[in-house]
């Protein structure tokens, strides 16, 4: 049985060269930066990694490189969601061969199906995959919301070990309440604003675009809230970070452009986003730089 993940996981960005090919040398530096600053795990090829604008072969190359660069220092979760169960299973088992521990799986989307269809989709993937399956509930992207009751039911499957909640906080609370006594199942938030609230009610982990830029600070938030149960100190740190939280989605839905720009400012290549995503505006870059300075960082040129 695969152990359920917990802690701060970084949904890794993917640096690109000017011709939009993957810059693997910079990717390794990003991974080293995350591990050196204490993250508990890596998410390779997730939404923040721009998997949705990649070919299947590129996704595989990213998963393979991520596992190689992690080199066993922290566990790896791979974004393996595809439209069909068959494709998802194939990518999940490729990730397992590369050394990934878990696979993050979106609900089936575009052609809407019934709750029974979703249930069977996840059960088939769980039964045939050699990685632990993490449900990705992201209705803002898929227009499919998994009910708390369905997530609870799926949590009973031996190889479904966690959920990444990118729905509203009330939904997360319901899921956490229903699954709190399920053995080997954890609940993660995928939203920066919900990280501290999630920990305060017993959530076991968090993803966040911003972890790419501020891994040390968000790992510290976890340590204060979860390991030390020092909510007062955690609230103080959260307040310091709150000014930059919203900038990750200031120009629309969360996407990696702003966090990539911030990383460029502190000397860790984030680079451009792939088309059809658009680059952050200069006004937004200036706001990010202002917040980084407040947090004690020296920032480079905004170019």
UniProtKB/TrEMBL annotation:
Q: Which residues bind pyruvate?
A: 48
Which GO MF terms are attached to this record? 4-hydroxy-tetrahydrodipicolinate synthase activity
- Coarse class of the primary localization is cytoplasm
One GO BP on record is:
diaminopimelate biosynthetic process
Active-site positions, per UniProt?
136 (proton donor/acceptor), 164 (schiff-base intermediate with substrate)
Query: Pathway membership of this protein?
Result: Amino-acid biosynthesis; L-lysine biosynthesis via DAP pathway; (S)-tetrahydrodipicolinate from L-aspartate: step 3/4
Lineage, top-rank taxon, reads: Bacteria
Give the record's GO CC terms. cytoplasm
State the reactions this protein catalyses: L-aspartate 4-semialdehyde + pyruvate = (2S,4S)-4-hydroxy-2,3,4,5-tetrahydrodipicolinate + H2O + H(+)
Task: Sum up the protein's function in the record's words.
Answer: Catalyzes the condensation of (S)-aspartate-beta-semialdehyde [(S)-ASA] and pyruvate to 4-hydroxy-tetrahydrodipicolinate (HTPA).
Family from the record: Belongs to the DapA family.
Q: HAMAP family in the record, alphabetically?
A: DapA (MF_00418)
What is this protein's name?
Answer: 4-hydroxy-tetrahydrodipicolinate synthase
Where does this protein come from, organism-wise?
Niallia endozanthoxylica
Which gene is transcribed and translated to give this protein? dapA
């Amino acid at each position: 049985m695969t152990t359920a993940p917990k802690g701060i996981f970084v949904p890794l960005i993917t640096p690109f060269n000017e011709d939009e090919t993957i810059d693997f040398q910079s990717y390794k530096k990003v991974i080293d930066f995350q591990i050196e600053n204490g993250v508990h795990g890596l998410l390779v090829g997730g939404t923040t990694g721009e998997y949705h604008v990649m070919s299947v072969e590129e996704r595989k190359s990213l998963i393979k490189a991520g596992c190689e660069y992690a080199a066993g220092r922290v566990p790896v979760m791979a974004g393996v969601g595809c439209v069909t169960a068959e494709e998802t299973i194939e990518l999940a088992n490729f990730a397992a061969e590369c050394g990934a521990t878990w696979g993050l799986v979106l609900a089936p989307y575009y052609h809407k199906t019934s709750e029974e269809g979703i249930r069977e989709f996840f059960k088939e993937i769980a039964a045939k995959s050699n990685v632990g399956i993490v449900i990705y509930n992201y209705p803002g992207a898929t227009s499919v919301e998994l009910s708390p009751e369905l997530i609870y039911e799926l949590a009973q499957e031996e190889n479904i070990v966690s959920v990444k909640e990118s729905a509203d906080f009330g939904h997360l609370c319901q899921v956490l309440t229903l699954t709190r006594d399920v053995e080997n199942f954890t609940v993660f938030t995928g939203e920066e604003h919900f990280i501290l609230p999630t920990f305060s009610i017993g959530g076991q982990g968090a993803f966040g675009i911003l972890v790419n830029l501020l891994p040390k600070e968000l790992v510290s938030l976890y340590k204060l809230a979860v390991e030390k149960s020092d909510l007062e100190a955690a609230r103080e740190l959260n307040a310091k970070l709150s000014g930059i939280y919203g900038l990750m989605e200031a120009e629309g839905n969360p996407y990696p452009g702003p966090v990539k720009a911030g990383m460029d400012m502190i000397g860790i290549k984030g680079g451009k986003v792939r088309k059809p995503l658009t680059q952050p505006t200069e006004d937004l870059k200036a706001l990010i730089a202002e917040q980084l300075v407040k947090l004690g960082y020296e920032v480079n040129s905004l170019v």
